Amino acid sequence: MSIKAPTRFEMGLPNVSLRSQNYHEPSHERFVSEPRNQITPVITSEQLLEHWQGTRRATRKFIDAFPEKELFEFSVGGMRTFSQLALEFIGMAVPTLIGVTTGEWPMNAKTEAPKTKADLLRLWDQTTDGINELWPKIKPDRFQETDKAFGQWEMTIYGLFFYLIDNEIHHRGQGSVYLRALGIEPPFFYSRD
């Protein structure tokens, strides 16, 4: 015995065409996927690095926009100061790349926090140099692997980099609120040069 699917009429649905009288079937040639062995990635490793470094350049401008004292002392609602947030980004960047490239996830070494904006910016720039040095050592297939970063965050490597970038952008939003509370116009968040 075969079961027949009900017609639109039997289901009480109107018999309408979803296409207009002027609809012409588009050419899909440019949207057809490539053979499986020739897939082009959505984003390359170099493009992901440039996106991250663009995010970091924007954050550096925020650090520089703070007056010296407020960078280290001002916060809103009991949240951390922007210098503490910047140190979080610094403390995650190179250790994450060490973990990604070696499989060994070093816990943040406690170092003395910078006491001046100039020292914080110098540390920021040293971290940028460390990122640029370690990034080319990431094997292309590593981005698709899952690992347990620092013994606690199990995710794909590309997901880990998305987290680092998202975390920095999220906290830079706090920095924007801090600057506005201080009467300072924040740098444009989209300015990545």
- Specify the helix fraction band: 40-55%
| Structural class designation | mainly alpha
Q: How many DSSP E strands?
A: 2
* Widest sheet, order of strands: 1-2
User: CATH H-level name of the domain at 48-181... which superfamily?
Assistant: dinb family like domain
Helix/strand order, N-terminal first: HHHHEEH
Main features:
193 residues, mainly alpha, Four Helix Bundle (Hemerythrin (Met), subunit A), two-stranded antiparallel ribbon, 47% helix
Folded structure, characterized:
The structure is a single chain. With 193 residues, this protein is mainly alpha-helical. The protein has a domain at 48-181: Four Helix Bundle (Hemerythrin (Met), subunit A) (Up-down Bundle), CATH 1.20.120. It has five helices and two strands, in the order H-H-H-H-E-E-H. The protein has helices at 45-65, 68-73, 82-102, 117-134, 157-181; strands spanning 146-149, 153-156. Helix 3 (82-102) packs antiparallel against helix 5. The mean pLDDT is 87.
Give the topology, please.
Layout: H1 45-65, H2 68-73, H3 82-102, H4 117-134, E1 146-149, E2 153-156, H5 157-181
Antiparallel strand pairs: 1-2
